[in-house]
């Protein structure tokens, strides 16, 4: 299956980077290369570093950018981008783009085990390395599973789902995506099964986040991205659920915060000055037109900050 991904908020993101023809840019989540190619198209003497941890993505973006002299491609998690850029002597940079979460290719390719819509081995590893979702559901206690589903899936039925998983695996190991989806469906109240959307959606999201350590990597990646920016450089981040967006929003707000002295102090004693400013106060959401064309974009949010 060809690695294709429908980039969300595509034009808004590329325009927000304010790309200079001689600039240096990092696409920290290259995926199928859609964003990378759009950046490369605007460069003349500049350089684009495209990073992804998924070997399928690296193969796809390598093929897509093979005719671009400005292109440098590197396999790694985006949380390592500062180290990668330093080693390649590309830091500091003029802009960084992060498109967080699972790609359309990963969701639509049954073999990767991200989706509850088709039967496949229960995997969910973006890097194809380390512990899989199968390892988690067959080895963790119900308490550990419930904590993951509650924290990362924000599902109020986390306890009953976790107990249902542990009960089911006593009879046979849980091997496939549809097997797990049916167990989850049987573990929630009938009223939940009647609601719009599959009852397994939140649990699959939670397992994917845990398997790939997504929130830890995002926290590290945000700091890495900001650290490699030049003054005036821009960081653009697209998120797809509230946990990611909250982290990005809070981190950017912290960078934009200046003096924290009490308002009745006559002079500042904390010495804090803002490190960045927001390009969009509340971020950007997809337009109605985009939502019609790509329903998966419904929860997307673009946030951009400029380093001072």
Give structural notes.
- This protein is α/β, with parallel strands linked by helices and 308 residues long.
- The chain has helices spanning 10-16, 34-40, 55-64, 81-87, 104-108, 133-139, 142-153, 158-171, 177-187, 190-194, 201-211, 214-228, 242-256, 288-293; strands spanning 24-27, 47-52, 71-75, 93-99, 229-239, 276-278, 301-307.
- The chain has a 7-stranded mixed β-sheet with strand order 3-2-1-4-5-7-6, with helices on both faces.
Q: Quick one: overall form? A: globular
Beta-strand portion reads 5-15%
Widest sheet: strand order?
A: 3-2-1-4-5-7-6
Largest sheet: 7 strands, mixed
Q: Which percent bin holds the helix content?
A: 40-55%
In angstroms, what separates the terminal alpha carbons? 43 Å
Ranges where pLDDT stays below 50 over 5 or more residues in a row are none
Global structural class: alpha/beta
What is the average of the pLDDT values?
94
Count the helices. How many? 14
Count the beta strands: 7
Gyration radius over CA? 21 Å
- Could you spell the SSE succession in H and E letters? HEHEHEHEHHHHHHHHEHEHE
């Amino acid at each position: 299956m060809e690695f294709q991904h429908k980039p969300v908020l595509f034009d808004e993101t590329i325009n927000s980077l304010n790309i200079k023809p001689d600039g240096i840019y990092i696409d920290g989540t290259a995926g199928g290369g859609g964003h990378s190619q759009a950046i490369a198209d605007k460069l003349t003497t500049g350089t684009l570093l495209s990073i992804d941890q998924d070997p399928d993505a690296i193969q796809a973006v390598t093929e897509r950018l093979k005719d671009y002299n400005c292109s440098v491609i590197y396999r790694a998690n985006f949380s390592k981008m500062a180290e990668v850029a330093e080693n390649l002597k590309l830091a500091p940079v003029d802009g960084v783009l992060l498109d967080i979460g699972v790609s359309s290719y990963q969701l639509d390719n049954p073999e990767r085990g991200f989706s509850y819509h088709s039967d496949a081995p229960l995997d969910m590893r973006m890097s194809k390395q380390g512990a899989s979702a199968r390892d988690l559901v067959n080895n963790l206690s119900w308490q550990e599973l419930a904590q993951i589903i509650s924290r990362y899936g924000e599902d109020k039925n986390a306890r009953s789902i976790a107990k249902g998983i542990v009960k089911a695996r006593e009879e046979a190991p849980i091997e496939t995506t549809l097997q797990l989806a049916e167990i989850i469906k049987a573990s929630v109240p009938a009223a939940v099964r009647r609601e719009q959307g599959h009852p397994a959606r939140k649990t699959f999201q939670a397992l994917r986040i845990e398997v790939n350590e997504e929130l830890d990597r995002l926290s590290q990646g945000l700091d890495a991205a900001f650290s490699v920016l030049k003054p005036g450089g821009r960081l653009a981040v697209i998120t797809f659920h509230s946990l990611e967006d909250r982290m990005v929003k809070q981190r950017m707000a912290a960078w934009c915060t200046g003096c924290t002295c009490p308002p009745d102090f006559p002079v500042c004693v904390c010495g804090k000055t803002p490190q960045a400013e927001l390009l969009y106060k509340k971020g950007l959401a997809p337009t109605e037109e985009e939502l019609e064309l790509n329903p998966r974009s419904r929860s997307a949010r673009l946030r951009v900050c400029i380093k001072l």
